[in-house]
Amino acid sequence: MGEAQEVQLCIRAQEANEANSQGHTNDSNQPTSRQTRKLTFWIRIGVYAFFVLSGQTVATLLGRLYYEKGGKSKWMGTLVQLVGFPVLLPYYFISAKRYKTKTNDNTTIQSKPPSFLVLASIYLVLGLILATDCYLYSVGLLYLPVSTYSLICASQLAFNAFFSFFLNSQKFTPYIINSLVLLTISSVLLVFQSDSEDTSQVSKGKYAIGFVCTIGASAGYGLVLSLTQFFMNRVLKKQTFSVIMDVIVFQSLVASLATLVGLFASSEWASLGKEMNEYELGKVSYVMNLTWTAISWQVFSIGVVGLILEVSSLFSNVISVLGLPIVPVLAVFFFHEKMDGIKAMAMVLAIWGFISYAYQNYLDSYSTRKENPIRNSESRASPQREKVING
């Protein structure tokens, strides 16, 4: 009996040493894998942010160029914001081939996907709101200088935060509230812009219509982002690039069809041929302008939905607002617009508002890093405690 007990003790000691050695190797590998995941995460954030900033800037400038050089159709200005989604369709053929190669080797258990009726309802709601939103943006860009238009769009962050509070349980901190107040004030300042700016080509009535439509579009955009985050988290429940593509393609399809109905119902389609012939830069430039505007908006959409998927709708909107001051600066060179005191003040407030929100994001990230080591150590210590107690 004594020898048997000694053998059992030796076996237990050897098993304990092996478990400890495996625990040490896992602990040594965990920081490396954690750093790799963190680096990959920030690379994705950087790529999506670049898509948002570049796509938004190029599309806005091209949209204003369309109206500046003879374009008049509000529905065409709306359609080019939506109709570029077919350039994304080759992704489905590539992903289908990859899926086939993976399923030959691996079998994965997936949660039950939403029904077709639920998905159709989601994309219908998002598409119709998006179509209305893009039309309001088109009216605003027609009647407002591109610098004023871009600065008013900064108010979309306040609307996004308001809707996210109810739909996605967005928390408000002093820095976020400060950010929203500053961005709202920067937009309100531009109400007085019509008195200080040369508006010989646009009457005060049309200027007011453009201002109201842009504010309405900003509110609609904030609602679309909040609803997109809500549906992706609560209904779709997937965090893959395929989800991003599905949301963009299907809501753009619905919005494009709704816009086409408006284009033909308004009879603006009949004047498009004349508009192209009278375009100041020529027919080829007319077609290229609309084509690249459509592509730029799709690049922007990929970045926006990608940031929603990785972080939140409010963070995605903050990156979008960050790019808005770029447009007024470029408008001074491309469209010879004036950068007066009110615009400069609004731009400073918009940048200050972004910095305030970005600092809150930094504080959240810092507090998360401080909490994780404690949680990880507790989770690693609990199995060892069980072994000691059972041993």
TrEMBL record:
Its main location: membrane. Keywords: Membrane, Transmembrane, Transmembrane helix, Transport. It is found in: Membrane. One of its GO terms (molecular function) is purine nucleoside transmembrane transporter activity. The chain crosses the membrane at residues 41-63, 75-94, 115-143, 149-168, 175-192, 207-231, 243-266, 286-309, 314-335, 341-359. One of its GO terms (cellular component) is membrane. Belongs to the purine permeases (TC 2.A.7.14) family. This is Probable purine permease. It comes from Trema orientale (Charcoal tree).
